[in-house]
Amino acid sequence: MRKFLQSIFTKPAITLANRLSSRPDKKRVDEALSDLYDQIKANHTRKGPMLPFNAATDKFIVFSDQHKGARDGADVFTRSAQNYLSALDYYNRNGFFYINLGDSEELWENLFITVKRHNKTTFEAEKMFIARKAFIKIFGNHDLYWDNDPLAAAGLQTIYGQKVEINEGVVLKTTVGKKSLEIYMTHGHQGDLQSDGNWFSKWFVSDIWGPFQAYLRINPNTPANNNELKSDHNRIMYEWSSKRENILLITGHTHQPVFRSLTQLESLFEKLGIAKQNNDTAKAAELQVKIEALHLKASRPPDFKGYLDTYFNSGCCCFDDGDITGIEIADNCIRLIKWKYGQGKKSERTILEECPLANLKLNQ
Question: Per the structure, how many domains does the chain have?
C-alpha cells in the first residue's frame, strides 16, 4: 500500500513542499542581512564573532541543513549520516575549522530529547572540533530553538559536555594580495515569510507534513535541486551580496548549492558560452549533452553577463541519495564539495567547483 501511495503522492507532495518552503520578501531579506552584518561588525558578540584568518594556512568547512531527526520515515538525514560522519572525520584529522550553518537539528518535527537520543554519534563527531576550539554553531529556522528557548543552553551542554555559544552569523576577515576580503555567513532564512519564525509553517511541518512524510518516506531534497536556475531566495541574496564591496556571502537554507553565484545548471551554461567564444566545438558539444541531461524547461539559455562571484550556498546534508554538499575555504581557494557513496558504500570526497580567492570577481 505504501508503495502505491508513494507512486501517486510523491511528485505532488514534493511540488507542494517546494511551494510552501520559501516565500522571501526582498525588502525584509535585505534589511535582515544588513542588520546582522552591521551588528557583527559592531562587535555585538551575541550575534556572532569576527574572525581574522590567514587564507594560505587556515582551513574551514561549512555544512548546513542536516535536519537530524528521529531516524524514522520523516528523517531526511538518515541516508546521509555516514557521509556526514566520514566528512567530519576527514576535516578534523586535517585541521579544519567547522562552521555549522544552521538547521542542523530538525526541531519543528521532533522534540529535542528525541533528536538527542538518535544522533549521539554525530554529536560526538562534532565534539572533536569543539575540543580543538574549531567549531561555530549557527541557528536556522528549523533549529531556532537554540536561540529562543530558555533551556537551550542546558540542552547543548548535555549534548556536547560543555557550554557552546549559539550565533546568528559569523564574518571571516582576511587579506588576499593587498586587498581585504570578508566572508559573511548566516543560515539565510532571515526575511523568508514562510520560515522566519512563522507559526503557521511550524504547525504545518510538525502536524501535517511530518506525519505524511514519515508514512510515505518522502524526501523532497533531491539532487535535482542542483539542476535548476537559482531559487528566488538565492537570487535575492545574490543581489544583496553583489552591492557590497569585497564581501562574499555564504548561506544555506534553500538546499540548493550555489558556487560563484551560479547553480550547477547556470555554471554549465556559462562554460558553454565560453567554449563557443573559443570555437571549442568538442567542449561545447560535451557541455550541451550535460545540459540536455538536466532537462531544463526553458526557451533559451539564461544571460549571466555582469554576474559577480559574491554569493555561495552550501546546499544541504540530506539529499535523498545520501549525498551531502558543503563549502571549503582552504589553500587560498574556495570550493564546492560533495561527499557521496562510492564502491562498497565507502564515502568519497569530490570537488565540484574550485576557484582561487584572488580570482573572484567582486564589487570593489
Answer: 1
